[in-house]
Amino acid sequence: MGPIGENEFFFLMQGLKWTVLLAIVGFIGGGIFGILIALLRTSKKKVARTVTAGYIGVFQGTPLLMQLFVVYYGVALLGIEVNAWIAVAIAFTLHASAFLGEIWRGSIEAVPKGQTEAANALGLHYVSRMKDVILPQALKISMPATIGFLVQLIKGTSLAAIVGFIELTRAGQIISNQTYRPLLVFGIVGAIYFSICWPLAHAGSGLEKRMAKAAR
Amino acid sequence: MLNSANDQPTLISLEDVQKWYGAFHALKSISLSVRKGEKIVLCGPSGSGKSTLIRCINALETIEDGKIVVEGQVLDGSTKSVDAIRREVGMVFQSFNLFPHMTVLQNCTLAPMRVRGTSHADAERLARKYLERVRILDQAEKYPAQLSGGQQQRVAIARALCMEPKVMLFDEPTSALDPEMVKEVLDTMIGLARDGMTMICVTHEMGFARQVADRVIFMASGEIVEEAEPEIFFKSPKHERTKTFLGEILAHH
Question: For chains A and B, what is the number of CB pairs under 8 angstroms?
């Protein structure tokens, strides 16, 4: 058994950096495309609704691990040279956009119909109706679920290890193999995940309580 | 009756309007014309189509057949015609439908800025003017949830007025209010009527109808059964269904 010293800890922190970066990229990319998906999913056009429903179905109905494989090797098959970082970022963006799109579709539909009617009666167009009236209310409604998904996404980044990405979990595995102290190493890794995810989840439920109060 | 508006031009006309919800015939050959400055009260049992009727005028509902013209603009379902009509027609809802994430002032300035392209400063001036008129300017910085129902409905009236509409539609504006708040909203509406606003009100407030309406229209099962000046309407209704309805509704007042 080897010791776990400064170097090993530094290596884990390097992994943590990638975990956080991946989660941020997935969340921002997924957020941008997710809004688009949610808007198409709630549009008047049947084609848009059907196509996005299919998109959401595919990404919710298959494992993230498989999605990572398909994007990683699929992009290479198309003859485009990309590094693992780009491929994984694309996969997480696609994955997150499907889930966030579905969460936000639900919250757009949860905004009372009277709001749309009032906006229509005032003559507001689609863009203003969405941007000024519906989306601010929908995003507020969706906050708890959105934060819940972010927590899932952070933990889901560990799957990026499969395509050779050294994020927190993979870094832990490497250290564990070097030091033969799996329990200790993965205990530390787990504690790091927990120290990020728990406050987030906690903030989410706090927000939920505050919103419930404000809605009264 | 405040004025007889017989010499005024027609502002709204409906010809033979038909509306279906699936197999349910909600509006049956409705024809109606409203002159500038006229105040019309629509009443009738629930499900009679009175709300549907006014919601067709600003295209919140589509019609299957017939013709709706507002200020010379034919409502043909095109975005252009819908936009043109909604710019001229204000609406007040039973459930207020204020935007809960905006202050009272923001509720009032949004549409003029987005639809008419009014500058922020001008929109605020306009908003303050109409909030003053519904006597609620002191609450301008509050959020709707901080106001009483009556106050919210007055804000909703001010919000619609900020678009300076030619016609105001009221869809049971006092039905969701506690009894003690009905009066403040009705007083606001009476004030509007005095200032010459063209109004179509779906309401069961018969006192209001007596005081303000030029014509009272009674609807039942999707048809206009009877229409008359309030005095005649309340004193000597012709149709059996009108008599029954008035009997029921006046028994409570």
Answer: 63
Q: Which of B86, B100, B101 lies at the smallest CB-CB distance from A123? A: B86
First CA to last CA distance, chain B: 21
Task: Tell the residue number behind the tokens 């564990």, with chain if given.
Answer: A176
Cα torsion B203, B204, B208, B212 to 10°: value is: 50
Task: Inspect the interface and report whether the beta carbons of A121 and B91 lie closer than 8 Å.
Answer: yes
Instruction: Return d(Cα B145, Cα B136) in angstroms, integer.
Output: 15
| Nearby residues of A81 by Cβ (< 8 Å), 6 or more positions away | none
Taking only the tens place, the pLDDT of each residue in B119-163 is 999 999 999 999 999 999 999 999 999 999 999 999 999 999 999
How far does A149 lie from chain B, in Å, by closest CA?
A: 24
Tokens found for residue B170: 């009221």
How many other C-beta atoms can be found within 10 angstroms of the C-beta atom of residue B114? 21
Tokens of A32: 């941008």
- By DSSP bridging, strand B198-202 and strand B167-171 are parallel
Find chain A residues with C-beta within 8 A of B83's C-beta.
123, 125
Q: Which fold has domain A6-215?
A: MetI-like fold (1.10.3720)
CA distance B235 to B243: 10
Chain A interface residues (partner B, CB cutoff 8 A): 112, 114-115, 117-118, 120-125, 128, 132-133, 136-137, 140, 214-216
ipTM over cut 0.90? yes
Two tokens at A50? 């059907």
Could you tell me which of B201, B125, B108 has the C-alpha nearest to residue B163? B108
Q: How many CB atoms lie within 10 A of CB A193?
A: 19
Alpha carbons A148 and A51: distance in angstroms, whole number: 26
Q: Please tell me whether the overall predicted TM-score, pTM, comes out greater than 0.95 for this model.
A: no
